[in-house]
Amino acid sequence: MSETPVDAEEVRHVAELARVDLDEAEVERFAEQFADILAYFETLDEVPAVESEPDLVNVMRADEVEDCLDRKDALANAAETEAGQFKGPHVS
Amino acid sequence: MTPDLNAFVTRETVPGADEGPLAGSTVAVKDNISTAGVRTTCGSEMLADYVPPYDATVVERLSAAGATIVGKANMDEFGMGTTTETSAFGPTRNPHDEDHVPGGSSGGSAAAVAAGEADLALGSDTGGSIRCPAAFCGVVGIKPTYGLVSRYGLVAYANSLEQIGPIAPTVEEAAALLDVVAGPDENDATTRYDRQDGVDVHPAEATTYADAADGDVEGMTIGIPTELVEGADERVVDTFRDAVADLEAAGATTHEVSLPSLEHAVEAYYVIAMSEASSNLARFDGVRYGHSGGRSGNWNESFATAREEAFGDEVKRRILLGTYALSAGYHDKYYEQAQNARAWVKQDFDEALADADVLASPTMPVLPMELGESLDDPLRMYLADANTVPVNLANLPAISVPAGEADGLPVGLQLTGPKFGEETLVRAGSALA
């Protein structure tokens, strides 16, 4: 069994961090499901530390000015725009 | 014509170039692959009205090759599902039996090909999303090696795991579609470059995958990972064994092999995929694109409202679990251990593929589920991915080919090869389909 059981309070906290509002029914359901899923994830404790050398190299390119998305196209999917810019809610 | 399978979210015809290797072919494109001017929903209410201002690289390549796009294929919301039931646009039905799911998340792509609504299709595979629906719908699907195909214009779910790949009725046709979409792309820095004689070359440049579809398995060595057979449904295993016998009759030799790390692949996959999803899907704030949360509250309130209203249950679940796995105090326990498991899986595959040309297993350990059967039990749905997720963790290529039927439902055989070993997979797979 998980040493960190998930309760409704924990689900609400994570939902706040992730910026996803939940209604009470969702909180209850997720708390129950997360307990099962996280208990299953517990078996990762059995995995040994593995030495691995990633065969990756950095791929660089020259930093040159190129054509990019037109401003009108970039704004086309926004709910609201103003003076060629995205218009969002108040910051605080 | 069969009743509507709901294989497409949007039906729209986009003609390609007059000439090319795919001239005259129709292609369904999964709805998480950007198409300029044609809405791209990812199966989500969040993007129900989103119209991309540019084409994904693979779409440009399709059009240049002469293919006609016939629509955007239905899918699990943002690729998160194994049945195509989490789509905000309703489930797709399996053309072999409409009471069953087509698999997922590229269920619309596979169903469209199986039902003849498109000659070919593109899907994306993060943990089996091409191979699972290919198996459930009785068609061929290829998950390419990470870095073979550009992901530019693919809406990201878990970008360290996913690749775009082909779905087709036969191995040869799937390989021909792979020939069109594979290649380097300066817009995707994770496409592979190998430095040879001072020049960057990509593995697809000197290769014609379709030419390898000669079905010649004489002398080929096939390893069978016991971990991927033991837990599977008996009817699936019987059908798989029959197909393996066909490969042996054609001259291949088989042996059993054990990859102990695979026992931890599902949990490692879900921890990594959910963690990446929690970050990748943070872009959906309802301001620059997507469903708006309105402007009555502050930024955080509006953001949280947009995401409550427009994400479905499975997407919320994965974002929250990913946030949890990365949060202070849990990072080492979940994410770090999952990365260890990923390295272990890679190591096990490398060792097994040192003694075999390819590895064979059932693609899915179960037959296609009945519609509605698995939606209320997310953990059960995750466990159905046991045979497909290891390949994504190891960045390797794999193909699912039809192995036969059990109880009137298709069963797929999965072949896994060494990195950039797609030709070997095409050769072995074409002995069956």
Strand order of the largest sheet of chain B: 1-3-2-4-6-5-12-13-11-9-10
Interface with most residues = A-B, 51 and 64 residues
Mean of all residue-level pLDDT scores of chain B:
96
Which percent bin holds the helix content of chain A?
Answer: 25-40%
The assigned structural class of chain A equals mainly alpha
Indicate the overall shape of chain B. globular
Q: Which quaternary structure do these chains form? A: heterodimer
Give an overview in words.
The complex is a heterodimer of chains A (92) and B (433). Chain A has helices at residues 8-17, 24-41, 71-75, and strands spanning 81-82, 85-86. With 92 residues, chain A is mostly helical. In chain A, strands 1-2 form a two-stranded antiparallel sheet. In chain A, helix 1 (8-17) packs across helix 2 (24-41). The longest helix of chain A is centred in the middle third of the chain and has 18 residues, at 24-41. With 433 residues, chain B is of the alpha/beta class. Chain B has helices at 57-64, 107-114, 131-137, 171-181, 227-230, 234-249, 265-280, 299-310, 313-326, 331-354, 378-383, 389-393, 422-429; strands spanning 8-10, 26-30, 68-73, 120-125, 140-143, 163-168, 194-196, 199-201, 221-225, 253-257, 358-362, 398-406, 409-416. In chain B, strands 1-3-2-4-6-5-12-13-11-9-10 form an eleven-stranded mixed beta sheet, with helices on both faces. In chain B, strands 7-8 form a two-stranded antiparallel ribbon. In chain B, strand 2, helix 1 (57-64) and strand 3 form a beta-alpha-beta unit. In chain B, helix 2 (107-114) packs parallel to helix 3 and helix 7 (265-280) packs across helix 9. The longest helix of chain B has 24 residues, at 331-354. The two termini of chain B are 24 Å apart. The model of chain B has no long low-confidence stretch (mean pLDDT 96). At the A-B interface, helix 1 and helix 2 of A face helix 7, helix 8, helix 9, helix 10 and helix 11 of B.
